[in-house]
Write a structure and sequence with these properties.
The complex is a heterodimer of chains A (495) and B (479). With 495 residues, chain A is of the alpha/beta class. Chain A folds into two domains: 108 residues, no CATH class; 344 residues, Alkaline Phosphatase, subunit A (3-Layer(aba) Sandwich), CATH 3.40.720.10. Chain A has 13 helices and 17 strands. In chain A, the strands form five sheets. In chain A, strands 1, 4, 5, 6, 7, 8, 11, 12 and 15 form a nine-stranded mixed β-sheet that branches. In chain A, strands 2-3 form a two-stranded antiparallel ribbon. A two-stranded antiparallel sheet of chain A has the order 9-10. The longest helix of chain A is centred in the middle third of the chain and has 23 residues. Chain A is globular and about 80 Å long. The two termini of chain A are 44 Å apart. With 479 residues, chain B is mainly alpha-helical. Chain B has three domains: 142 residues; 120 residues, no CATH class; 149 residues, Leucine-rich repeat, LRR (right-handed beta-alpha superhelix) (Alpha-Beta Horseshoe), CATH 3.80.10.10. In chain B, 42% of the residues lie in helices and 5% in strands. Chain B contains 20 helices and seven strands. In chain B, strands 1-2-3-4-5-6-7 form a seven-stranded mixed β-sheet. In chain B, a hairpin with a 7-residue loop joins strand 1 and strand 2. In chain B, helix 4 runs antiparallel to helix 8 and helix 5 packs antiparallel against helix 6. The longest helix of chain B has 27 residues. Classes of the chains: A alpha/beta (495), B mainly alpha (479). The interface between A and B is large, with 63 and 59 residues. Chain B: InterPro entries: Cyt_c-like_dom (IPR009056), Cyt_c_Planctomycete-type (IPR011429), DUF2231_TM (IPR019251), LRR_dom_sf (IPR032675). Chain B: GO terms for molecular function: electron transfer activity; heme binding; metal ion binding.
């Protein structure tokens, strides 16, 4: 009996999944020309007439397994993978080996994306000092962020097993290096729904420029119903595509149309009682509400000057700084998961922009102020206690200087490195001013406190109130979870 | 070696060879013991003839060790009781090995007595060695390194890893935080056994007594206290403590010691009752023991009955989101992201949930100061957010009836400092957010002073403009 129930359940969800966000947003637009009638007062007549409307809404808020410390997550992903050796993992011993040939013991049996033959060691290209009462080592590339040393927990021995960007980003965001799994944000909205039905539960913001190598699947919903996929909001033009009124139609007319469609749907529901009709009603409603709510929350013009000064934001520009400010605004409005992608961190040394000593420093400058401002702004609004902030790339960079195809490079660079890299977490029950994990004296291998990617996922879910082993979804005859068959909560960093 | 020329002598140098030389008689005696056992096998019988000579070597080495040991003891700085025991045991080892050698012929006729004597010898060198080790490394050298599974057998097992407090605020500053640092970093030399510099740091009374160069503690003046001054000296300074080669205090431990001295070096005081600065707050936050993962301080431990569905439905109809804080809990959380029109009259609808409602977020709603009469009745509230509302805080003191309130967010409201101070005696309130309230900076100082035990965030953070903020790095092309 329960097997049939599971099958039917899965079939229903499969159907939900096939309705993509784009379908229903497109439907909103095309459906408008079809009819124009009636009245519908949002949040009033509709909900009382159909008491179970909420139950049918896949985005309705849900309680977690146990009380969560975090209500929302802001994930700052530096696509391309920043060098831990120029930011947080201070290795004076590596400086002494600078320009010497790499010992064969570090190369035997190892694979690198681009390093061939015997590369030279590359000493830290930054000046480090200790900061805060915790004495964390942070380089002079992040002069503002240094003041946040006592707010964050550093994970210095994160390990991955993927040395190419696409698979590594997929692993970082979906828990699997192959396509088809739901992203972390999708799992979170699947588990928690959203308390603000006027906004998407999972928003993705990119800093312009290059999209992450893994493409949009890193915020996709995989086998989860597509309502849980990340909604990419643009910082230029319309924040969400296909959401604005078509030309020649004003908002009143649009409202009238949607009201009419909903009334017809209500009649349909009274006649047939199909819950899918209710889902459709709530989706029309969401799309309509989002027309007002999304442009409003995505507008940073009204923020006071001192906030702009703090973040270094310039309204109307696509920038990481603007996205940081938006992330705070979205979280303040109840959005569950805000995913930021920045780009240009792939410092191979192939050109000036990707040089450890030039482009990398410029990237650091671009994020230093906004990231610091984000933490401080969340703090002063009392949001940091319930917002989990994560910063990191998809892997680290080698202590060796890259020698692509065995040749000298025009600029200093480092290759992809999977054995140890640094990410940090802050807020929402994460220890303040703490470091977990250690690498060897040249920062090549993790020595203590190793952290796997699915440990990070387990910790994110934990802080939101989930047992990562129990947040599952039935697919292809077995329950799936974000942490797959692994994942240990990183308890040492929990306050 | 300049040091030796001035204070040293041949006797002293020979004495310091003792920790090295003692291993000779130990090794030789064990070899003798092995010979005794192995030569019982017919194949190895020839070894018997080597036993007397081995025993003679053991006796000679033991006697010489005793001599060097005596010379070393003249240096002083050791616990007398342990030293005496070690001294007599050492002599006993030398004497017995001598007797054993002299009477070897006689013993040969009594193989059983021979075996007994050999085993006694083994036990004796073990005990002597242990006391010697205690003199060199301090008496908890082994226990400190014992894994948890073993330390249960040790009489001194104080379970160093587990803390006596559930919340860092309840920790006793000296007993739970400072003394463990001293135990960990200082006591191996500054104890009754070793007494370096005549200083003992095992108890507060002994610390106050000071060392041979006078007191080490000047209350409330860390920078004037020898114990702190020495810790922050540069690593190459010969007066630095712990000395070169021994693990230094971590920045957090140093900060802790500084704070304790600055507080006047109190004993029996809880962390939460002492004034804090931002640096020590950061250190303390990192020391907060991990709670069971599924428990939150803001969720009461005692259970509560289910909330009436009708009351939840009435609030939901107003646009509020009413949710259990966890799937198996009856405690409720309310948010108002989609109920910006929620007002003072609507607030009364929450009263039927006053047992269950613990987290309330009314950010951006239309509530005014009149809402406080309702909020005051929500006695189980632990978290309350009124951010961006029209409240002026005049009735804020009504929240004193919410005896479980821990978190209060008044950001972007017109609340005044005096009203906030009226919450002074709200005993669980520990986190207060009052940024963008328009309270003048001069008054903020007073606020911090009046509410010194609360974590108050007054916001208004600014980031300095640094020259590096505008430098774009480019390679300069040289032709």
């Amino acid at each position: 009996m329960s097997r049939y129930k599971k099958l039917i359940d899965e079939a229903n969800k499969e159907h939900l999944r096939s309705l993509t966000r784009r379908h229903f947003l497109m439907d909103c637009v095309t459906g408008i020309g079809a009819a124009a009638l009636g009245s519908f007062l949002a949040g009033c007549g509709g909900t009382s007439a159909i008491p179970s409307a909420v139950a049918a809404d896949p985005m309705a808020p849900k309680a977690p397994h146990f009380p969560g410390k975090a209500k929302s997550v802001i994930y700052l992903h530096m696509a391309g993978a920043p060098s831990q050796l120029e930011l947080f993992d201070y290795k004076p011993a590596l400086q002494k080996l600078h320009n010497q040939l790499c010992p064969p013991s570090l190369l035997e049996g190892k694979k690198f994306a681009f390093i061939r033959g015997v590369p030279k060691m590359l000493g830290p290209q930054a000046v480090f000092s200790q900061h805060g009462a915790s004495g964390a080592w942070i380089s002079d590339h992040l002069p503002h962020f240094s003041s946040m040393a006592d707010e964050v927990s550093f994970l210095k021995a994160v390990q991955t097993d993927q040395f190419n960007h696409g698979p590594a980003q997929l692993l970082m965001q979906t828990g699997s290096a192959r396509l088809g799994r739901p992203s972390t944000g999708s799992w979170v909205t699947y588990g928690l729904g959203t308390e603000n039905s006027n906004l998407p539960g999972f928003v993705v913001l990119t800093s312009g420029g290059k999209t992450p190598d893994a493409g949009k699947s890193i915020w996709g919903s995989g086998f989860l119903p597509s309502v849980y996929q990340g909604v990419q909001c643009r910082t230029k033009g319309d924040p969400v595509l296909f959401l604005s009124d078509p030309e020649g139609m004003d908002r009143d007319l649009r409202k009238a149309s949607i009201d009419a469609i909903n009334r017809i749907n209500e009649e349909e529901y009274t006649a047939y009682g199909d819950p899918e009709t209710l889902a459709r009603i709530s989706q029309y409603e969401l799309a309509y509400k989002m027309q007002i709510a999304v442009p409003d929350v995505m507008n940073i013009q009204n923020e006071p000057d001192y906030i702009h000064e703090m973040y270094g934001t310039q309204p109307g520009k696509e920038s990481f700084a603007n996205n940081c400010l938006l992330a705070r605004k979205l979280v303040e409005k109840g959005v569950r998961f805000v995913q930021l992608y920045d780009w240009g961190w792939d410092s191979h040394g192939t050109d000036e922009n990707l040089a450890i000593d030039y482009g990398f420093r410029n990237k650091c400058r671009e994020i230093d102020r906004p990231v610091t401002a984000l933490l401080q702004d969340l703090k002063q609004r009392g949001l940091l206690d319930e917002t989990l902030v994560i910063w990191g790339g998809e892997f680290g960079r080698t202590p060796m200087q890259e020698n692509r195809d065995g040749k000298d490079m025009p600029f200093l660079g480092r290759d992809h490195h999977v054995e140890a890299f640094t990410i940090w977490m802050a807020g929402a029950g994460i220890k303040k001013g703490f470091t977990w994990g250690e690498t060897d004296e040249i920062g090549y291998a993790a020595v203590k406190g190793k952290v796997a990617i699915n440990d990070i996922h387990a910790t994110i879910l934990q802080q939101l109130g989930f047992d990562h082993e129990k947040l599952t979804y039935q697919f292809q005859g077995r329950p799936f979870r974000l942490t797959d068959t692994g994942g240990h909560v990183i308890t040492p960093i929990l306050a | 070696m300049i040091l030796l020329e001035s204070t040293g002598s041949w006797a002293s140098l020979t004495g310091r060879m003792h920790p090295l030389l003692v291993h000779l008689p130990i090794g030789i005696l064990i070899v003798a013991l092995l010979f005794v056992l192995i030569s019982k096998l017919p194949r190895w019988q020839s070894l018997r003839s080597a036993i007397p000579f081995t025993l003679f070597l053991a006796f000679a080495a033991a006697a010489f060790s005793c001599l060097t040991g005596y010379l070393l003891s003249q240096d002083g700085g050791y616990d007398e009781k342990t030293l005496d025991t070690h001294f007599y045991l050492g002599i006993a080892v030398a004497v017995i090995s001598g007797i054993w050698w002299l009477t070897y012929r006689m013993l040969k006729k009594s193989p059983k007595l021979e075996l007994v004597l050999a085993l006694v010898m083994l036990v004796l060198i073990s005990i002597t060695g242990h006391y010697g080790g205690t003199l060199t490394h301090g008496d908890n050298y082994l226990e400190a390194a014992m894994p948890a599974a073993l330390s249960g057998f040790s009489k001194k097992a104080t379970a160093a890893g587990t803390s006596n407090y559930k919340d860092i605020g309840d920790a006793l500053l000296y007993e739970d935080l400072v003394q463990p640092v001293l135990n960990n970093r200082c006591i191996s030399c500054h104890s009754q056994q070793k007494l370096k510099g005549g200083l003992q740091l095992e108890t507060l009374a002994l610390m106050r007594k000071g060392g041979e160069n006078g007191p080490v503690l000047k209350d409330s003046m860390p920078e004037e206290s020898e114990i702190y001054k020495r810790i922050i000296l540069s690593e190459n300074d010969e007066h630095r403590m712990p000395p070169k080669g021994k693990p230094s205090l971590t920045p957090a431990e140093t900060e802790l010691l500084h704070w304790w001295i600055a507080c006047g070096g109190p004993a029996g005081k809880k962390v939460k009752d002492l004034p804090k600065n931002p640096r020590i707050s950061a250190v303390l936050a990192a020391m907060q023991p991990s709670k069971p993962v599924d428990q939150l301080a803001t969720v009461p431990e005692k259970t509560v009955g289910k909330a009436p569905d009708a009351a939840i439905a009435a609030l939901t109809a107003k646009g509020l989101k009413v949710l259990p804080v966890a799937e198996n809990s009856n405690y409720l959380s309310i948010t108002a992201f989609t109920a910006q029109g929620f007002n003072d009259q609507d607030a009364a609808l929450m009263l039927p949930l006053k047992e269950q409602l613990i987290w309330l977020d009314l950010s951006g709603t239309a509530v005014t100061d009149q809402v406080f009469s309702t909020l005051g009745q929500l006695k189980n509230l632990t978290k309350l957010t009124l951010k961006g509302t029209a409240i002026k805080g005049k009735e804020l003191k009504a929240l004193n009836q919410c005896a479980n309130l821990m978190y209060l967010n008044l950001v972007q409201t017109a609340t005044g400092a005096a009203d906030i101070i009226s919450l002074k005696n709200n005993k669980h309130l520990e986190q207060l957010y009052v940024g963008q309230t328009g309270i003048p900076a001069s008054t903020l100082q007073d606020l911090h002073k009046q509410l010194e035990l609360m974590k108050i965030d007054t916001g208004g953070y600014r980031l300095a403009q640094l020259p590096t903020d505008t430098i774009a790095y480019h390679k300069v092309m040289n032709n």
